[in-house]
Amino acid sequence: MAFRRAALFALLSAAVALAQSPIYGQCGGEGWTGATTCATGSVCTFSNDWYSQCIPGSATTTPSPTSASSAKAPSSSPSSSSTATASSTAPSGTPITTGFVKTNGQKFALNGADYVVAGTNAYWLAQESDADIDTAFNDIVAAGLTTVRTWGFNEVTAAQNYGAYYQSWSNGVATFNTGDFGISRFDAVVASAKAHGIHLIVALTNNWSDYGGMDVYVSQLNPGGTHDTFYTNAKVIAAYQNYIKEFVGRYANESTIMAWELANEPRCSGSTGSASSACDTTGSTINAWAQTISAYIKSIDPNHLVAMGDEGWFQEANPPTYPYAPGVGIDFVKNLQISTLDFGTFHSYPESWGQQANESAWGLQWIADHATAQVNANKPVILEEFGVTVNQATIYTGWWNEIISSGLTGDLIWQAGSVLSNGPTANDGYAVYPTGTVYPVMESAAAALKKRG
Ligand SMILES: *[C@@H]1O[C@H](CO)[C@@H](O)[C@H](O)[C@H]1NC(C)=O
Ligand SMILES: *[C@@H]1O[C@H](CO)[C@@H](O)[C@H](O)[C@H]1NC(C)=O
Ligand SMILES: *[C@@H]1O[C@H](CO)[C@@H](O)[C@H](O)[C@H]1NC(C)=O
């Protein structure tokens, strides 16, 4: 397997003699032939069989809580976050067991300090070159963000020689892609995130047919079946678990991953048509599926947090608007009680949800109502996608203020973009770029959230 991270770190450390790896440089792993000792002030820390890294710290000192806090970003102190205590006593070759983001009541915690989720979505990362992935993370770090949500899936039915895909399907058989345009590209995303001190939230499939998603499993294994048979068909569930075993299992000891998500925006109905009457629009079908899949993830990877990745629909008796009503098959409050789901997720797209005449006020209430559910469940809840296409600075300012004052745990904007070697990243109408007017507002909001804790 061609591990491009080796190249990445070679580049980062070009100026440093090979006798010692620089801070954040690679210092071990299968196939590694470079230096195995680390620059002064850092310790060679086992990450997985393929990768050990020089993490700041020393074998005898414990990092102070402040250095491990979420006030991590800027380049001067990249990954105070994953400092992982630079594990004092662990002999080399023993996985460190600290350094994973955990929950603590309604907060996230890392190495004993608060970990603040102030971040963005960047679904496209693995499709880019190593240099462009670095550019994107440089921008994200410079903005003071801590967390990035990205796609850990791409199902294809014909091989491709660009970008990244992780499974190719033919006649109902999935092949995990260990080739050049396969999982090594996700390794590169993880390596760059790690070098920048950013944690990743990774969704493992998609409701939408972008990048394949659920509908490829269904069409391959249950031809003619409705979208929602993704949640119930035994062959489909086994195939999805098999994918999880490969993908999640590969990164089970990688503390750069903050959390796995069962799916991006799961719903009963999908691209291939309406749901069957067997999918319960009030939520029990997806709730049962979420229990099964989240427990399965925990069984092969007890280190990482798990969340749904849904839009946060409520099931209210007298719903004021559509996202509070039965229909899509999500019961946010009930799902939050699943013991193998560690935190709640919700999205906010009032323009797409019939609230375009009232989007600012509607979004404020949507945040407040999820903050209430957070308190009731005593688990963290994050607004993990949000967007409007008009009056962004004004509306987001109001929403960010509400996040802070309501006590909501954190948020991820959809979506902070970058200008890469091939031009600006995709703009679906929501992208904000470093030179734009909304970006500085996002930076201030991240700083304010980190200050609140
Ligand atoms: C993760 O660590 C566990 C416990 O030491 C080990 O059994 C497992 O093989 C490791 N997995 C990976 C992918 O490195
Ligand atoms: C799932 O996919 C289809 C469109 O591709 C859409 O009708 C449905 O609303 C989607 N739901 C979500 C939440 O993405
Ligand atoms: C706008 O949304 C808020 C919060 O949901 C609601 O209280 C208000 O009545 C709505 N206004 C209009 C005009 O729909």
UniProtKB/TrEMBL annotation:
Residues 62-96 are annotated as: Disordered. Keywords: Glycosidase, Hydrolase, Secreted, Signal. Residues 1-19 form the signal peptide. It is an enzyme of class 3 (hydrolase). It is found in: Secreted. GO terms for cellular component: extracellular region. SMART domains: fCBD. GO terms for biological process: mannan catabolic process. Gene3D superfamilies: Glycosidases. GO terms for molecular function: cellulose binding; mannan endo-1,4-beta-mannosidase activity. It catalyses: Random hydrolysis of (1->4)-beta-D-mannosidic linkages in mannans, galactomannans and glucomannans. Its EC number is 3.2.1.78. Residues 19-55 form the CBM1 domain. It holds the Pfam family Cellulase. Belongs to the glycosyl hydrolase 5 (cellulase A) family. This is mannan endo-1,4-beta-mannosidase. It comes from Schizopora paradoxa. The lineage of its organism: Eukaryota, Fungi, Dikarya, Basidiomycota, Agaricomycotina.
